[in-house]
What does this fold into?
Amino acid sequence: MSRFSVQKQQVLDACLTLADRGYLAGIGGNLALRLDADHFAVTPSAADYYAMKAEDICVLRLADLEKIEGELKPSVESGLHAAMLRFHRSAGASVHTHQPLASAVALIRRDILLPAGDKLGGKVALIPYAPSGTGLLVRALAKRLKPDLFAYLLRNHGVICGAASLEAAVAAVSRIEQAAARLLESLIDRQPSLPSPLAALIGAALQPEKTL
Ligand SMILES: [Zn+2]
It folds into this structure.
């Protein structure tokens, strides 16, 4: 029995919440939780969240990504999460999503502006493209991390954000999606020929009951 069993279950629960909301796009996306000063939990690579068990969650050493617990291969984006958790000492959790609307913005190379006072900072800042799961992507993020920005848009890919807790990270993902919806809506106003499925997604994200 792992001494981190409770935290592993919390990671799994948060994954299921995000997957239910469509933010992980199948097996895409992954999640990390700081366990203590030296360790973090992270989801396994290419995991089907609906088949995952809490004991499948890996425990890695923050300093060098050495695996301490877990039978499965840790997420290929473990390095991204470690960079976030090392830089933002106040972040207890880090989440990487392929959420549809923010990922659409990542294709058109824009920052996503956030409402004044958002805990994530003023924007979701665009990071130049580097392939998924590579040291290049980790370095591209690491050198652009800012003390007052907790969310970043990975070009042509998705989002990574840090938050105080898993609950805060899940809520942050929804706020980012709403902000992306507002941005895309403003662009669609000028380009009425954009496809209607995208407009439908934007409309759904802007529903008041989605507000968190
Ligand atoms: Zn990804």
